[in-house]
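Now for one record.
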Amino acid sequence: MSEQRQAEFDTWLERWGLDQSGELLDWNEVFGGRPVVLDIGFGRGEGTIDMARADSATAIVGIEVNTPGVVAVLEAIENDPLPHVRAVHGDVLRFLLRVPLDSLTGVRIYFPDPWPKKRHHARRLVRSDVVGALVDRLNVGGQLHVATDIVDYAEQIAEVCQAEDRLDGGIVPRPHWRPLTRFEQRGLDAGRPPTDLIYTRRN
């Protein structure tokens, strides 16, 4: 980044960012009572920004390790403006330690890294220990929504979520309200239609 862009990034991150590590967060202090959705791995940020524009009543905490994507979301928060959004530049597993139990209305994981080689499948984000930690932080009635265009990953997601006895749900038609991003469009162009899976915490 240029010096000016770096200075903007630092300012915006201070104003609109949440540290990946630290004390347990109080969502009422951060968002004034809005329901909170965790948006994990938002990539370039188009989907996060579009959904935030469409729903100002829901707070969004977006998490991404890719710096340009975080810059894009922070710029939108600052200039759009989208004061009900916060960005985390870092790792979701570390950040979850800051998220209170039973405090989230939803978790979104759209097109997570598929780690296509079989020997790397253990690195995939949607696995039993991570899903368990996410469900711990959903409130009863809260939803976990995952989308992928990798067939065997969709099968793995379904298997993991079905094994979590606090969840009900499965594969659903693509929701009209989930924005079409450049990443998803590339998959469609390559002949990879997405699979959406939505699960609700029942207890």
Remarks:
- The two ends are 46 Å apart (CA to CA).
- The chain is about 35% helix and 25% strand.
